[in-house]
Design goal:
Blueprint lengths: L1 H38 L8 H9 L13 H6 L10 H4 L9 H31 L4 E5 L8 H5 L4 E5 L3 H11 L8 E5 L1
This protein binds zinc ion.
The site of zinc ion (ZN) has 8 residues, from helix 6.
Length: 188
């Protein structure tokens, strides 16, 4: 009886920890997605919560609900080979909306949410690491990198600072990669 009880406590303790981590990342993603959806005119007012879940990846509306028939896709002027469901279409404000544009915007919001959350978690990790005097930025060089990153290809770009906010400012001012891809190493 007693052993069982201990196991139970340990068990729930363990799962709580993983849960906290996930909840933290989810919270960040939810906040970013919510901000973008509120700015966008493409999402129906009453469907914001569902849209947030889709954009953060908590649910996938392309995998739920009735798929569109070939004729329905033609009616909507969609690529007939494209996978589409009524569940996804239903969150879109159709009045005065180009459906293809709206779908593109939803994809973009998903990408930006993931990218910004990843960046925020990375910055938070660095500031929790403790003291540093400079940060080396290494930019990727491929077709997905922005011009600023490309121009720094293979060069180490050093920011002399001990403030993570300052680095964030430098990156925000210059890098337009979507998703965010720069690598950072802190030096003491
Ligand atoms: Zn960039």
């Amino acid at each position: 009886m007693i052993i069982e009880k201990i196991k139970k406590i340990l068990g729930s303790g363990g799962s709580n920890n993983t849960q906290n981590k996930t909840t933290n990342e989810e919270k960040i993603k939810n906040r970013i997605a919510k901000g973008m959806i509120e700015e966008s005119s493409f999402i129906k007012k009453g469907e914001h919560r569902k849209a947030i879940k889709h954009i953060t990846g908590e649910i996938d509306l392309l995998k739920s609900g009735q798929p569109l028939t070939l004729n329905e896709k033609k009616d909507f002027n969609l690529n007939t080979r494209r996978k589409m469901t009524h569940d996804l279409i239903n969150i879109i404000e159709m009045e005065g909306t180009d459906l293809n544009e709206a779908l593109k915007e939803i994809d973009r919001m998903s990408l930006v949410t993931r990218s910004k959350a990843q960046r925020e978690i990375h910055f938070k990790g660095i500031s929790e690491e403790g003291l540093f005097k400079k940060v080396e930025l290494m930019a990727p060089n491929d077709h997905r990198a922005c011009r600023w990153c490309k121009s720094r290809n293979k060069k180490i770009f050093t920011v002399k600072t001990s403030s993570i906010d300052e680095i964030e400012e430098v990156i925000n001012e210059n890098c337009t990669c979507e998703p965010w891809r720069i690598a950072m190493v802190t030096k003491v």
